[in-house]
Amino acid sequence: MVASKGCGFNSTPMRKIIHIDMDAFYASVEQRDDPSLRDRPLAVGGSRERGVVMAASYEARRFGVRSAMPSATARRLCPDLVFVRPRFDAYKAVSAEIRAVFEEHTPLIEPVALDEAYLDVTENLKGLPTATEVAKDIRATILARTGLVASAGVSYNKFLAKVASDHRKPDALFVITPAMGPGFVEALPIGQFRGVGPAIEAKMRRLGIQTGADLKARSLDELRAAFGSAGDYYHSVARGIDERLVRAHRERKSIGAETTFSQDTSEYAVLAERLQPCIDKVWAVATAKAVVARTVTLKLKFSDFAQITRARSLPVALADRATLEGVSLSLLREAFPLRRSVRLIGAALSSLQAPSADDDARQLDLSL
Hints:
- The protein is built from 14 helices and twelve strands.
- With 368 residues, the chain is an alpha+beta fold.
- Strands 5-6-1-7-8 form a five-stranded mixed β-sheet. A four-stranded antiparallel β-sheet has the order 9-12-10-11. Strands 3-2-4 form a three-stranded mixed β-sheet.
- Helix 4 (88-103) packs antiparallel against helix 5 (131-146) and helix 12 packs antiparallel against helix 13 (321-334).
- The protein is globular.
């Protein structure tokens, strides 16, 4: 990729962006550290009956096992699935090794998770001639130092770099050049666009939007009318344009997870059950990030796509998952009676901070 020319879509000078995504990170660390787990279908997460799959090895994915899937469902799909409890200290240590590799090439690093980051290598510290060479060097160094495989996407903006890293996973390096960008986006299934979750994808398909070309054919006014402020984003990325910068030292303001149902429901017991994987995922991310929180938010989206949120801020940080579950279910109970059925439920933590010694000394009254 040539750095100095404009990309042809706007006046912003072209950047060189790499998106690095570790392949099945948690599961790969477990298989690396325990040879008996190699080449076996593996899930990192809760027990077989309860909890949620946090990560699945590629051997497990062949059976349809995916992250955020209830453990019981994963077990039904793959009877020989091996469950391993997460070791966040190990994952954080490996993530630090990977971050050190990134820092050898650029200070412009935007972590997305322990296993994922954007890098702006428009100017790289090693003086390598292209972003593709930087990505090759990063992948080879990560493999040599950690024994783990990283996939990389290279492009001129964050949206396309992310698309590229997913394109041929696992163990992939894919480049989307400025000349390729618009055509590549036009052929992209709408579900592969960043920011298009199951609910938005279903709405787009009802509007006849199946691919990037269909999205590009809609005017900005049409997209704003259908999707509000997100319409501006969809209008831009459909043309291969994404001017978001790689932001180093990004501070995470909240941690959330949500799930969309195949069939709407208004029953409390069903909603409480479907909230459990969201609670598992949120607590797992907070633990992995070594943060505590004081605010819990419940999200409900109804059959007509209207949505509500209910939040509670606590005097001290949440002490454990049980507290998070108790507050979340209390918020759910308070939302009843429901006038409409629910299609999506979610939970989130905010008011994040590093844990203090006082947090361990104080406990919350769980009778909410």
